[in-house]
Amino acid sequence: MKSYTPYENVSAVDYPPILAVTSLNDTRVLYHEPAKWIARLRATTSGTYLLKTEMGAGHGGPSGRYDSWKEEAFVASWVLDRLDRA
């Protein structure tokens, strides 16, 4: 498993901009895992890395139609900003 985990395989190469989205109440991927990964990327390389932690969501993201749309809009706007299309 160590051969393919993102955290264990960070190296000093140029990564594309990364948005990591996690949830405080996720029981499958605990919030500290993406936080450690982003911290390691920032310590190892120079790039654009953003960590967003949902405080009230679970593994599937925020519940409710409007909250899900808001989350999708955030991700889409981040991607558009990285592409200089915002």
TrEMBL record:
GO molecular function, one term: serine-type peptidase activity
Lineage: superkingdom: Bacteria
Domain Peptidase S9 prolyl oligopeptidase catalytic: 1-83
GO biological process: proteolysis
UniProt xrefs under InterPro entries: AB_hydrolase_fold, Peptidase_S9_cat, Serine_Peptidase_S9A
Gene3D superfamilies given in the database record: alpha/beta hydrolase
PANTHER family given in the database record: PROLYL ENDOPEPTIDASE-LIKE, PROTEASE FAMILY S9A OLIGOPEPTIDASE
Similarity-based family: Belongs to the peptidase S9A family.
Name of the molecule in the record: Peptidase S9 prolyl oligopeptidase catalytic domain-containing protein
